[in-house]
Amino acid sequence: MTNTTAVPRPAPSGSALRRAVAGLSVALVLTLPAHAERGDRLQKINIAADQSGQIDLQKQIVVYTGNVVISRGTMVIRAARVEVRQLPSGYYTAVAFGASNKPATFRQKRDGVDEHIEGEAERLEYDGRADVVKFINGAEVRRLRGATTADQIAGNLITYDATTEKMTVSGGARPTAANPGGRVTAVLSPRESPSCPG
Fold it and tell me: Choosing a second label site near 84 at 20 to 30 A (CA), which of 53, 92, 117, 197?
């Protein structure tokens, strides 16, 4: 059975993540042409899950488990478990957790072009008011032109701000087999240019 819940616009997350990230050793700011569909900010958030939601009225948190899908316009987050919180301002935040060997994922269409931003990490933190997604632990984000990867960045923490069209990537704590030094990596493609006559 699938449970579906529609909720109004989400709200920002706290500063606890900023304190945790303060110790990371490397930061790289990339300005990619990556703004999200403008209409997405005006859409309601829809949540569907295979299992029942658990509601904590005191903390204003709803927890969904089992193949959770959150959508807002063209934005889609998929995870094993998601915690949705309503803040006093009326906005919502969501924290999405992947399962073992299956990270939480994010995908959103860019405005006016056939491009998408997609990424994955062990944990995603979504702030609907600010239109920001944080990819935490084993983070990787790609800009796709059609079905082709145009740009790709990887690190321990990637922050994607759809409003300012910027991504920030930090490396550090968790080396992997593919990146034993735990370094920040980026592969950036040149802009597509019109064909030259000739």
Answer: 117
Domain ranges across the chain: 3-15+23-188
CATH fold label, 3-15+23-188? lipopolysaccharide transport protein A fold (2.60.450)
Rounding to the nearest 10 degrees, give the CA dihedral for residues 51, 53, 54, 58. Answer: 170
> What is the per-residue pLDDT across 81-131, written as a single tens digit (0 to 9) for each?
999 998 888 788 999 999 988 999 999 998 888 999 999 999 999 998 898
- The CA distance from 23 to 110, in Å, is 32
Helix (H, G, I), strand (E, B) or coil at 60: coil
Q: Copy the structure tokens of residue 181.
A: 């030094």
